[in-house]
């Protein structure tokens, strides 16, 4: 007898956490890939007072909300405290991270190992973005915006406007 799943073909809810300071087209590419594999995805914007961000958590959330509006099974949220506690509270088990280049690996593997230590049931799934975004980072985008060049290629129109406001372009 075949076992019936509550969501045939789907894999439940995936949580994609990060700073998203700001969200780039690379992040969005990962959200889109996740939305095609899982039933739904929550992009979880980290509220970590110990980290210095360019944009407030409300601004970062607003940019994510705007960008995922057209993806029916994606939503935005914020979290603070331990990521694994947030994942448990959302009744999820899968955590998504993006892997761009080999240099991401050290940090990402450390993070995945720590999260697994904190909660052995959590599963980190790494997704690779389109190669056009392999060298794209929030900090690089901010640097380009700060220097007054166009960032349209790298971020959504809404994020580009927020960057222009922030850096007075
Ligand atoms: P964090 O501070 O948690 O690393 P980031 O917003 O920098 O937050 O990144 C969130 C996740 O998205 C990380 O797994 C990071 O590797 C991934 N990521 C960042 N930029 C890209 C990109 N251009 N393509 C794919 N993944 C990316």
| Top CATH class | Alpha Beta
Provide the low-confidence segments as ranges. Answer: 1-8
Q: How many runs of DSSP E, i.e. beta strands?
A: 5
For the largest sheet, list the strands in their spatial order.
Answer: 3-2-1-4-5
Under CATH, the topology is which? Rossmann fold
Treating each run of at least 4 consecutive H or I residues as one helix, how many helices?
6
Question: Which strand-content bin applies to the residues?
Answer: 15-25%
Distance between the termini: 63 Å
The helical percent reads 40-55%
**Average pLDDT across residues?**
93
Structurally, the number of domains stands at 1
Describe the largest sheet: 5 strands, parallel
Topology:
Blueprint: E1 13-18, H1 25-37, E2 40-46, H2 57-68, E3 74-79, H3 83-89, E4 94-98, H4 102-118, E5 123-127, H5 138-146, H6 157-166
Parallel strand pairs: 1-2, 1-4, 2-3, 4-5
Adenosine-5'-diphosphate binds next to α1 and β4.
Describe the 3D structure.
By secondary structure, the protein is of the alpha/beta class. The chain has one domain (13-134): Rossmann fold (3-Layer(aba) Sandwich), CATH 3.40.50.620. Helix content is 40%, strand content 17%. It has helices at 25-37, 57-68, 83-89, 102-118, 138-146, 157-166; strands at residues 13-18, 40-46, 74-79, 94-98, 123-127. The chain has a five-stranded parallel β-sheet with strand order 3-2-1-4-5, with helices on both faces. It is globular and about 45 Å long. It starts with 12 loop residues before the first strand and ends with a helix. Adenosine-5'-diphosphate is lined by residues 18-20, 24, 26-27, 30, 97-98, 100, 104, 129, 133, 136-138.
């Amino acid at each position: 007898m075949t076992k019936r799943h509550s969501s045939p073909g789907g894999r439940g809810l995936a949580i994609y956490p990060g700073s998203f300071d700001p969200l780039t087209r690379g992040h969005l590419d990962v959200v889109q890939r996740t939305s095609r594999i899982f039933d739904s995805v929550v992009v979880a914007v980290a509220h970590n007072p110990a980290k210095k961000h360019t944009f407030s958590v409300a601004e970062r959330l607003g940019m994510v909300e705007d960008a995922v509006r057209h993806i029916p099974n994606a939503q935005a949220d914020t979290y603070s405290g331990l990521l694994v506690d947030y994942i448990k509270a959302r009744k999820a088990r899968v955590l998504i991270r993006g892997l761009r280049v080999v240099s991401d690996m050290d940090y990402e593997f450390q993070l995945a190992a720590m999260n697994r230590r904190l909660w052995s049931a959590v599963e980190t799934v790494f997704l690779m973005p389109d190669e056009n975004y392999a060298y794209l980072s929030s900090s690089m985008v901010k640097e380009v915006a700060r220097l007054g060049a166009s960032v349209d290629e790298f971020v959504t129109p809404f994020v580009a406007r927020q960057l222009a406001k922030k850096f007075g372009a």
